[in-house]
Amino acid sequence: MLDFRNVGHAYNGTPSVSDVSFTVDEGEVVSLLGPSGCGKTTLLRLAAGLETPSKGQILLQNQIVSSPDHSLPPEKRGIGFMFQDYALFPHLSVIQNVLFGLKTRGSAAIARAMDTLAQTGIEDLADVYPHELSGGQQQRVALARALAPNPKVILLDEPYAGLDSRLRERIRDQMLHVLKAAGTAALMVTHDAEEAMFMSDRIVVLREGEIEQAGRPVNLYCQP
Ligand code: ADP
Ligand code: ADP
């Protein structure tokens, strides 16, 4: 589905990730785990097409979408992106936020947006504005907006960072359920090992821009 092959990247000559290879298979949730500065966000940005690799290739459904001399623009990748701060449009209602990501317009688009709001359990909030929502509700709008175009892969940057710890547990349960029900593969960034263990089919542990270990949660040794 999403395939990183020996990917390297640098910011103005300073390496950020080097020789990173891993895959996200159909329907899988894969976490990128590691301390601040280890290259997690850069890998998401590379997958999204917001950065170009200096080495290697990224493939999406067996097509090269990123290499040092070719980068398919973000909007042509069919990837959903959920930002850490949700990035909702404050002047648009919930349903208008979700419609924003859709290429179609009219009744089909509205039906799709309402379906996605139902999937994430917030269909009664369609006409509400972001400032009227709790953090958890905003998170679900952001998830609905990312899922509405029915992407093959969704990229999640620290999806629970803005939530308090009790809410986080409930939301991550719901979110996992939504992703699995939709069959959408996900690549998620976190610095929280427990969260990665709970959410992921596989975890890629990074250190200083390189993969330290990768595997299923039960097979990974995690430092306390
Ligand atoms: P993480 O998401 O794991 O915190 P990042 O991918 O943000 O890590 O950063 C990887 C490395 O690249 C770090 O050394 C960071 O300081 C550097 N870096 C990230 N973004 C930029 C940028 N826009 N310009 C220069 N260096 C950057
Ligand atoms: P995160 O914890 O999500 O990685 P950071 O606080 O590391 O976020 O970085 C926030 C923003 O600053 C990101 O957009 C990142 O690309 C940018 N950034 C990180 N390190 C650097 C750096 N050394 N120089 C310039 N920009 C950076």
UniProtKB/TrEMBL annotation:
GO molecular function: ATP binding; ATP hydrolysis activity; transmembrane transporter activity
Species the sequence originates in: Puniceispirillum marinum (strain IMCC1322)
Residue ranges occupied by any ABC transporter domain in the UniProt entry: 2-224
Lineage of source species: Bacteria, Pseudomonadati, Pseudomonadota, Alphaproteobacteria, Candidatus Puniceispirillales
GO CC terms of this entry: ATP-binding cassette (ABC) transporter complex
Record's keyword terms, sorted: ATP-binding, Nucleotide-binding, Transport
Positions of transmembrane segments: none
One GO term of the biological process aspect: quaternary ammonium group transport
Keyword Transport attached: yes
Keyword Cell cycle: no
Name used for this protein in its record: ABC transporter related protein
